[in-house]
Design brief:
CATH class of the largest domain: Mainly Alpha
Structural class: mainly alpha
Strand order of the largest sheet: 1-2-4-3
Oligomer: single chain
Number of domains: 3
Mean pLDDT: 83
Order of helices and strands: HHHHHEHHHEHEEHHHHHHHHHHHHHH
């Protein structure tokens, strides 16, 4: 599937002996029945999979937050446009339109099959993948035009049986009674119906939108979306089970295994872009003396580390790394960082500080060693890092704290609403740590007009990065200040 540096795909036993060739993508909608055949690079393999996972992760978050389809589409649409665009054939006015469409559809095709390899490994991963992929397919189908929908039905033979006119007339009264209230009897009599086994349309049966006779459901053409989604999810479930059985026998390149393992570990946050409006223009605008006053805008993970630092006048390596890069992200310059850490490590002599800590601080700013300018760590990175041990305070409290300690920490922020606390407990039990963090953000920012389920910004995004939490908290604080100033308070 990818272009190896040491071993070409044609030489690998698990691909068979057929000629590897590029595939055509004439249609936008894809049921993903045929695996990709051509080679891609290892970089494309990882990048495309991560981009798709970003979209699926946000879809899963919307599910856990009980958002309806309209709100889900509004939330996910910007991510789709950025990471997984899929333009229709009707798009005009583009340079190299055909090439652009093929490129988008190729990425969509490959990324789906790459994630199959990552998410086929356990029943829980398969369930999550099928649910998120089905919602994504539904969004794309409902946004497609009639021609695209017809192309899907023409391309894939679903094996539905069209109800003959004479049979439809004999059952018309029953069909009319099961049609939706917005459908007139005239429309119902003119509509085509399909016969399918009743167990294939549980959603329509639950909402009483189909007539059932002898174990057969009579589905109107207007409700064919439910049929298509059932076909999509069932085919994907079977394909994942087959992949899971075949995976141990696949002669995969060793370099793929770490990538696939990483992809299956929780969600992946979109790349964090600092909000320039949270601080004044320029780099390094936060001073060491301001940190304590900014703590109310910190997420629980950073408050925990800060509290331990102030109490013990010391932090171990992983805590210094997580907190130091976070402070760098909110605008603390390297000079101010050296001041902050020196004053915080008050029990340490100047000689020991310069010998043991100064180099590491400058290294994080790209001024020592390999000169790499490190970014603040995202929630995904924090969740997959080593868990904190004794006398260590890094990590994610929603994952690493006991339930009682977590509730106590949240109550320490002023959150007393039992509904919020119950929701956090449930999120943590479901391993939806970013949902729990977003829920706490909402509860602590009600004064700024934040209420569930709006997330932490205009785009209703979930907390996926500690610095995103900080940025949005500062943003809402400015809004409250502006309102109070205008009202003369």
């Amino acid at each position: 599937m990818f272009r190896a540096q040491k071993k070409r795909a044609l030489e690998r036993t698990n691909f068979g002996k057929e000629v590897i060739r590029e595939q055509d993508y004439p249609d936008r909608l894809n049921m993903y029945l045929i695996p990709p055949l051509a080679e891609i690079t290892l970089d494309q393999f990882e990048e495309w999979a991560l981009d798709r996972l970003r979209v699926l992760s946000e879809l899963e978050t919307c599910l856990f937050r009980n958002r309806n389809m309209k709100a889900t589409e509004q939330t996910v649409k910007p991510l789709l446009e950025k990471y997984l665009p899929l333009s229709p054939n009707s798009v005009s006015g583009r340079v190299n339109k055909g090439s652009q469409l093929d490129s988008e559809r190729k990425k969509d095709h490959y990324s789906h099959f790459i994630l199959r390899l990552a998410f086929c490994r356990t029943e829980e991963l398969r369930r999550r993948f099928v649910k998120a992929e089905t919602i994504l397919f539904r969004m794309r189908y409902t946004s497609a035009d009639i021609a695209e929908q017809h192309a899907l039905l023409t391309r894939y033979n679903f094996g539905w049986t069209l109800v003959p006119e004479d049979e439809k007339r004999s059952l018309q009264d029953f069909l009319n009674s099961s049609s939706s209230e917005s459908t007139t009897h005239t429309q119902s009599s003119n509509e085509s119906y399909f016969k399918v086994p009743f167990e294939r349309v549980p959603e329509l049966i639950e909402s009483r939108k189909v007539f059932i006779k002898g174990g057969v459901a009579y589905v109107p053409a207007s409700q064919q979306l439910s049929l298509i989604l059932t076909e999509f999810s069932e085919k994907l479930e079977r394909a994942l089970e087959i992949t899971a059985r075949a995976l141990p026998r696949l002669d995969e390149d060793d370099r793929l295994l770490p990538i696939l393992g990483h992809l299956s570990k929780g969600f992946v946050a979109p790349e964090y872009i600092p909000d320039s409006s949270t601080t004044a223009p320029g780099h390094g605008v936060v001073r060491a003396t301001q940190i304590d006053s900014l703590v109310p805008h910190f997420p629980v993970c950073m408050r925990t580390i800060h509290t331990a630092l102030r109490r013990d006048s010391h932090l171990r390596y992983f805590g210094r790394q997580q907190y130091g890069l976070f402070l760098k992200g909110i605008g603390l310059s390297v000079e101010e960082a050296l001041v902050f850490w020196r004053t915080s490590f008050s029990k340490c002599t100047d000689e020991k500080f310069n010998k043991e800590y100064r180099y590491n601080i400058r290294h994080n700013y790209g001024l020592e060693g390999n000169r790499r300018n490190y970014k603040p760590r995202s929630c995904a990175q924090i969740l997959t890092d080593a868990a904190p041990g004794a006398n260590e305070y890094h990590g994610c409290p929603y994952r690493h704290f006991s339930e009682d300690n977590l509730v106590a920490a949240i109550q320490g922020l002023g959150v007393s609403d039992q509904g919020v606390l119950r929701g956090v407990r449930e999120d943590v039990r479901n391993k939806q740590y970013h949902v729990a963090c977003t829920r706490v953000f909402e509860a602590t920012h009600k004064a700024a007009g934040v209420s569930s389920p709006v997330g932490v910004g205009v785009g209703m995004e979930s907390v996926t990065h500690p610095n995103l939490y900080f940025d949005r908290s500062k943003q809402f604080a400015r809004q409250v200040e502006a309102i109070e100033t205008e009202s003369g308070k």
